Amino acid sequence: MVICTGTRAALPDVPGIVEARPWTNRHATEADSVPGRLAVIGGGGVGAEMATAWQGLGASVTMLVRTSGLLPRMESFAGEYVARSLTDAGVDVRTGVSVARLRRPDPDGPVWLELDDGSELEVDEVLCATGRAPLTDDIGLETVGLTPGDWLEVDDTCRVGAVDDGWLYACGDANHRALLTHEGKYQARIAGDAIGARAAGKPLDTAPWGAHATTADHHAVPQVFFTDPEAAAVGLTAEQARQAGHRVRVIDVEIGDAVEGAKLHADGYTGRARMVVDADQQHLLGVTFVGPGVAELLHSATVAVAGRVPISRLWHAVPCFPTISEIWLRLLEAYRDAAGD
């Protein structure tokens, strides 16, 4: 049995939240009219994407972000680029601020947000982009000794370890490994193969595509935020790599300055690429791109990170001229020059 029930939006525990009837990501992507004024609570991927979309549709958008910047799980420069672009487009991006209370006295009227800095904000709708919670409340987990509403902890074949006899699996958001559609699909492929192998009594390391294990969930998770500019990353940030005990070298290149293909893609192209290199093993631990169209660069980075391709071999993956993919050559040149090789 495989549980694939996904998640729901987690609303903040703020007085007045029920009365305010806030939008979640579902409401924001299904609405059929544009609010004149929209407040977005949260500065992660959903918040940044929805602010981008609704500002583009004509709403006056205010972002309220508790942290010091947007996209906190990415390299800090990615959030800086996106925040600057949103601000230039007319979005009021407020960082380091929290919502203390919500009020909507008239069910058909505006929403008032009381902020922790003492100010108030009046909007027509408020969107909460403040995280996810598992949809495991009412599927009978208590009948097998698990707690309803909890995330389901799984091993690398997506099997739930707390259930005897190993018959229960969980894929996608419900297992909390990587809350992304493409990662859920990846896990489902792995789990399906592992279930088939176990049923046939075959070792899990004899699969045609390698071991039946979701190893990419540990070190090579790709993610794109479809903001303007796009932000795309795979693997570890420089800080995450250091915290994991790696000795790292960090290489940054401004895409618009270094790559002819970027100048052909858009006038005044601005963006940045970063690769985080394991200084001892000489392979990539993480790659981040921010800029127009960088989502299409990410799979090449994912292959390099997932495959732990040595830097010495990446030199021979020749990018075509004039494409934005030449950013790979510029990163490798910068790595070489910094090393004095």
Molecular structure report:
This protein has 341 residues and is an alpha/beta fold. It is 30% helix and 22% strand. The chain contains twelve helices and 16 strands. The strands form five sheets. A five-stranded antiparallel beta sheet has the order 12-13-16-15-14, sandwiched between helices. The protein has a four-stranded parallel beta sheet with strand order 5-4-3-9. A three-stranded antiparallel beta sheet has the order 6-7-8. The longest helix is centred in the middle third of the chain and has 19 residues. The model has no long low-confidence stretch (mean pLDDT 95).
Tell me the total number of β-strands. 16
The gyration radius over C-alpha positions equals: 22 Å
Question: What coarse outline follows from CA principal-axis ratios?
Answer: flat
Could you tell me how far the N terminus lies from the C terminus, measured between alpha carbons in angstroms? 54 Å
Largest sheet: 5 strands, antiparallel
Overall mean pLDDT stands at 95
Please state the structural category.
Answer: alpha/beta
**Residue share in β-strands:** 15-25%
Helix content: 25-40%
Order of helices and strands: EEHHEHEHEEEEEEEHHEEHEHHEEHHH
Number of helices: 12
Poorly predicted sequence stretches spanning 5 or more consecutive residues: none
